[in-house]
Structure formats: structure tokens, C-alpha cells
Specification:
The structure is a homodimer. The first copy, chain A, is built from 9 helices and no strands. Chain A has about 200 residues and is mainly α. At the A-B interface, α6, α7, α8 and α9 of A face α6, α7, α8 and α9 of B. Chain A binds a DNA duplex (19 and 19 nucleotides) through α2.
DNA sequence: ACCTGAACACCGTTCAAGT
DNA sequence: ACCTGAACACCGTTCAAGT
């Protein structure tokens, strides 16, 4: 009941949430511990009671990002249980939407901004869970003849590199306007998928 | 002849060079105007005589990176004039080598770290020159049946996204060690190329 | 034209001290 | 256990002043 002086029980999560908000409103370059602390209503040194340093806060935010996409991808696979082609397309589009809607959270989550990622085990765990999801999707696609046979982790890696590369370039404004005039981001993504699959993927919905 | 007090004629390029050195030795997070100025032997405010702000220095360094790869790619195309498959492989590997040898210069050059890239016309010009090189390569590969017919800029874009995505993930330590134990970075790259081409690319030299 | 030094508002991080 | 405030070494940027 003593809620006047920010003993609000869960400063740690409040700081993570504040970080996500700063990313959304001001971008990754404006993400600072001091700003996050101020937004959570505590002094600039309070975060150090919950995070070893700025890298640890970034790791926690990245873990949040991975959790978000994990839930989204899991839902998709349940939604089209007998249609791996549709799962592939919708999964890729979920990543694309994440990248375009929340570019800076996407960067923190996937762009490898951490110096020593292995020092953050819960983040590593989430990245592996998401990679496993991708591998399972690849296996289902192989069974349907969408991907050729071969090591599923290798194909999943290549799928992710392709999707991630396109999203990063779209985010950074590195895609020529001549292309953007003719194709939507979604179409560019579908073209990429099409070029790496055995079966043609329709360009339109 | 008055070379005692750093009127050394070309502070601008000295600052760019100092920036490249800082990237190589301490990484992108340690790149600061003040450090670059100190390394060039001038006061912390001297850079402002040559660059509007830190973004402008970053843009100049990125331009340098684009020039470096432009020369490398151009040389390769001249080296195997009648072998587009070899040109494709060696071009992709040149990017890969750049990314692995100078990860932080590669990031500055290609990762879209600039807030307003269009404000730096000489950088935009170099990015376009490199993209044109890639398109010409794609056209030669299409003529040889390596890539399917289709818009060459779209295929070039997808090629670049695939190569860039893999390099970024390798840099960030985002490729599973299970994969790295079985495949070299070069093999991962060749596998990616293989999956997007019409003709099989041999995995070994 | 090119450079310096002081100044300002921001950082990350540490540490003694308070409850 | 959780938080504060002062302190330190760094930033980017501006501006008056020097040559």
C-alpha cells in the first residue's frame, strides 16, 4: 500500500517497458539508461539495482522482442495447420511487419547490437527457440516440396538471412525508389521467398 | 613549410582515415568525434570546420567503404571476363571478406546507420554505383542462365539482401555454432547463392 | 580559412549514504 | 533490498576568440 515513493514492486519490468517506449518514440540512438530511468520515475542510478549495465537492459529489451515474435509465429502455425506454404508466407510477413512497425525494437532484437550476447542466457534461449520454430517450418515445407531436401538448419539459416537482409535494407532506406515504386515491401519479400523455393509463390494475396 | 602546427593541408582526409582506424581497433561504439580529432592531433572542435556534425563524418567514412568495395568488385569483373558464375561467386566473397575482416567499417558502410542518408549526396552516388555494378553482374548471369529472367534490379536487390543478411548474422554471432562447425562462412554463402540460382554452384573451390 | 578553449547539456558508471 | 545524490570521465555541439 506504500505506493507513493516508487517501491512499485517491479521497477525492472517498468524499465524494460520504458525502454520499448523510448525506442518507439525516439529511436535506438536516444535510448539511454538515464532517460529510461527518468521515464520510470526513478533516479538515474536506480537501474543499476536491476541491470549490471546498459548492455544488460538492451539484452532484456531484445528478449522482449524475441518473445513478441515467438508468440506471433506460434499463432500463425496454429492458424493454418495443413498449409505450410501459407505458414511460410505469413511467418515471413510477420517479421516484415515487426521490422516496419517497430524498426528500432526490431534492430535491438535482431541486429546483434550486443557486444557479448552469450553473457545473457535468457536472450540466447529465446533466440534458439525462435530458430527452432523456423527449422520446424522448413521441415514442414520440405515435406510439401516447397524447399528442396537438405539440412533443415542450413535452409532455415538462409531463409532467415534473406528475410532479415531485406527488412534491414528496407528499414535503412537502402532499397532504390525505382523498386519501391513498382513493388510493395510485401511483394519484395514474396519475390525473395519465391526465388529460394522449388514451387512458385503467387505474388499477390 | 609551416608544418609544425597542424596546418597539414588535408585535415579532412586525416579525420576520415583516423575514423577508419578507430573502427578497426576499437569498434563502432567507440567512434567519437573527439577521439578522431585527438588521433589526428587537433582540438575536439576542429572537425567542425570540415564536417557539419558527426553524421557527416560517418557519411564520409561510409563513402570510403563503398569506394573500397567498388574497386574490388570492378577488378573481379575484369579478372574473369567470360565467366559470370565465377564473377558472381568472387563478388559475393569479396563482400564476405570485407564484412569479416573489417566488421565495423562494413557496418558503417552498409548497415544504414545514418538518420538522413539523402543529405549526403556523394554517399548516395557511391551506393548507386555499387548497385549498378550488381545489376550488370545479374544481367550477365541471366544471359548465362544462372539467374532466371526477370527485372534485373529486383534480382540484384534480392542478391544483395541475401549476401548482406548472411554477413550481418555472421558478424553478430547470430549463426548457430552447430552450423559453423560444419560449414565455413564461404560455404554458407555459396549455399545461399546456390539456392537462388538456376544452375548448381559447386560448394568447394 | 582554419583552428583553439571554454562552456553547455547530455551520457555510463561508481560509491557512499539513506530507508 | 532498493533507491538517492554527488562525483568522475566521457560525449556532441556551439561560439567567441585567435592566426
Amino acid at each position: 500500500m506504500k505506493n507513493n515513493t516508487y517501491h512499485h514492486g517491479d521497477l525492472k519490468n517498468a524499465l524494460i517497458q520504458a525502454g520499448v517506449e523510448v525506442l518507439a518514440s525516439e529511436g535506438v540512438n536516444a535510448l539511454s539508461l538515464r532517460k529510461v530511468a527518468k521515464r520510470a520515475g526513478v533516479s538515474h542510478s536506480a537501474p543499476y539495482a536491476h541491470f549490471a549495465d546498459k548492455q544488460a537492459l538492451i539484452a532484456a529489451i531484445a528478449t522482449e522482442g524475441h518473445l513478441y515474435i515467438f508468440d506471433a509465429i506460434t499463432a500463425i502455425s496454429g492458424q493454418y495447420p495443413e498449409d505450410p506454404m501459407r505458414q511460410l508466407i505469413e511467418t515471413a510477413c510477420a517479421y516484415l511487419r515487426f521490422g516496419l512497425d517497430e524498426p528500432d525494437l526490431f534492430k535491438i532484437t535482431f541486429a546483434g547490437m550486443l557486444e557479448h550476447e552469450r553473457d545473457h542466457p535468457s536472450l540466447v534461449e529465446m533466440t534458439q527457440k525462435n530458430f527452432i520454430l523456423l527449422r520446424q517450418l522448413v521441415v514442414r515445407c520440405q515435406a510439401a516440396g516447397i524447399f528442396a531436401t537438405g539440412p533443415d538448419d542450413l535452409i532455415a539459416q538462409n531463409l532467415w538471412a534473406t528475410v532479415y537482409g531485406l527488412i534491414s535494407l528496407l528499414q535503412g532506406g537502402q532499397v532504390s525508389s525505382a523498386l519501391l515504386d513498382r513493388f510493395s515491401p510485401r511483394q519484395l519479400l514474396l519475390f525473395s521467398l519465391n526465388q529460394m523455393t522449388q514451387i512458385d509463390i503467387p505474388f499477390e494475396e
